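Need tokens for this chain, all 419 residues.
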Amino acid sequence: MTEPTPGTFRPGRRRVLQGAAVVAGAQLAAPFLISARGEVPVKIGMVDEMTGPASMLGTSEHQGALMAVEEINAKGGILGRKVELLLEDSASDTGVGVQKAIKLIDRDKVNVLLSDPNSGIAYAQTQVTYQKGVLNILPGAHTDPMTGKACKWNVFRICGTTSMDANSITSTLVRKFGKRWFMITPDYAYGHTLQAAFIRDVKQLGGTVEAVLVPQTMLDFTATLIKAKLFKPTVLINNMYGQPQVDCMKQFLQFGMEKSIALGGAIFELEDVVATPAAAQTGWWNMEWWWNQPGVPHVAEFNAAIHKRFGVMPSARVWFGYVAVHSFRLAAEHSKGLDALKMARALEGMELPPEVALQRGKTFYRAADHQLMATIFVGEMHPPKHGNKWDVFTVRKEVPGESVAATAAEDGCHMTYPS
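Here are the structure tokens for all 419 residues:
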């Protein structure tokens, strides 16, 4: 994979988001001792897509991160210091995303960077953080190499890899819908690795695939859907994300294709589902975290807190942002400081506590490649139940991430550390 070339920096409005313990116009009080001791806040830099095709997902990641910051500050901060969340908008542009990361590191002196959900942008940002020796957490960038052949000592990922997502759902899709697939895939890093994983998996099960790469910002799928209809698949695999995925689903309905072709794929984000007509809320998909987990400790409290604060039910993206901030907190606390290498060592192999994991089973960062091993929820999408627009997914199977992940060696990760 070639490294993206940084583009021209187009400065946008930066939002400096402080925790709930900040009182406007007042001096900071205990438990923070900044004024008395001259300590600077602990700074978390976040580059996300707040505008562009994935803005719904970026907004959700930011909500989860902000909730975590507010919780942490209410309990005294990190290492007794207030935490600030500095948000920058990549606008779905690699050059802008890289320049924003550089600004956060060099000018704002952040202690950790939370990278963009766009895999191409996030990959470019990992080059920057590696060169500068800054801890880098990837909340929601899926492409395989970032914890595979391009793994780095300072980079940790929360969401699953594209191969993990494909491996979780392929056998279910074949069993439910058959082996003749038509696949629509965004033409960038995430799409490439997801498509390759699906093709590998379905061919191992004796299937046939017609796959089409389209621009990741594509909104008119007329020609592609006509081609799909002529292929006569049993299932359409929609690998798009954000607004393009929603538009593809809407046009699928407009052509009446739902009468003869099933829908499915790796991920249909909650943000995208609720923006899609009820008739297209169908098929079998993965959720990388799901809010409706009866009996799982702390989940109901988390759901209530997010809903009260932002008026939504938490999605996987909200959970990604929440886990990213708490992972940084745990790394700092366990290493007793903010040294990037020591924090990385502290995170290796770390199991997330139940109030952060928010799911059954062991949820941990695999030491060999820094990939979080979390549950993947496989299930059926449907129109809202019980008058609740967020109740659009029924979990049929909970898949432990480690059961569908290749080993670090198989993924090509050979971790090296500063001497």
